[in-house]
Amino acid sequence: MAAMHDPTPAIDLDNLAAGYNRVPVFSGVTGSFRPGSLTAIVGPNGGGKTTLAKAIAGVLPPLAGQVRFSGKRRAGRVGYLAQRVDLARGFPISVFDVVALGLWRDVGGFAAVTKPYRDRVEAALEQVGLVDAASRDIADLSGGQFQRVLFARLIAQDAPIILLDEPFSAVDRETTSRLIELVAQWYGAGRTVIVVLHDVGMVRAFFPEALIMRGRLVDWGPTEQVLADQDHASVEHGVDADLMRELSTALAGKKETGS
Ligand SMILES: Nc1ncnc2c1ncn2[C@@H]1O[C@H](COP(=O)(O)OP(=O)(O)OP(=O)(O)O)[C@@H](O)[C@H]1O
Ligand SMILES: [Mg+2]
After folding, report:
1. From 20, 26, 237, mutation site for ligand 1 pocket: most ligand atoms within 8 A of C-beta
2. If you take atom 13 of ligand 1, which residue's CA is the nearest one?
3. Is residue 82 part of a domain?
4. Is the CB of 169 under 6 A from ligand 1?
5. Alpha helices in the chain (DSSP H)
6. Which of 21, 63, 127, 146 could cross-link to 141 by cystine, CB 3.0-4.6 Å?
């Protein structure tokens, strides 16, 4: 796997400001994601979570400061899953081709998608349980199926940094537990994983580090510490107890084998 060749970079935010039309949503954000860390970004609607994720992914240029990858300015390889509201899928393209797009950096275009690459796409689809849907049009998929396709694209992309913006919103329990298992696998394999989410119960249970955005960086560090004195009433949702048990088992298994 590509991630095994390059050491996973640290991500350093250096006095970062980001926003739109030159108006910052936040500024002065400084701190680091350790290589191989698993961090949740939490905070209320409009708190700047997506803006921060976009700045880290490199899709939104900073208004001030920098995002550095182990000291380098050039963006490290980030597998980025945008928040669902930012994703359009009204154009005709097959499940297979969406996943193959994850290989673009390696392949350089559809024309060159040869057997080894096709195998990678199929292996990725297998992992999300969609191998039989390869030729379907993405417009015909349910929301949860489409989310699985996007995870398959990330698997195919094989990036050392994984950045997911609310990947579990509006997906059912079975899909959530399947997707969080993939998150656990990425984490277990030493990748740096950052997930924006609203479910503070899930954050508490599975994410060792947390970062709170509320128009500014409120706190960043070990989850228990960060959540200890925060009022999360506005963002906290209950989590199904069965789901919590399933996820707990999934993650515990991965952590043991992963480190
Ligand atoms: N494309 C845009 N153009 C202008 N302003 C924007 C744009 N996207 C977001 N904003 C504004 O930036 C602020 C932060 O938005 P952001 O999407 O980062 O919040 P968020 O924490 O991800 O919220 P949510 O939980 O609803 O996803 C909000 O006030 C929002 O209105
Ligand atoms: Mg958002």
Report:
1. 20
2. 46
3. no
4. no
5. 2-5, 49-57, 95-101, 104-107, 115-127, 143-157, 173-188, 200-206, 223-228, 241-258
6. 146
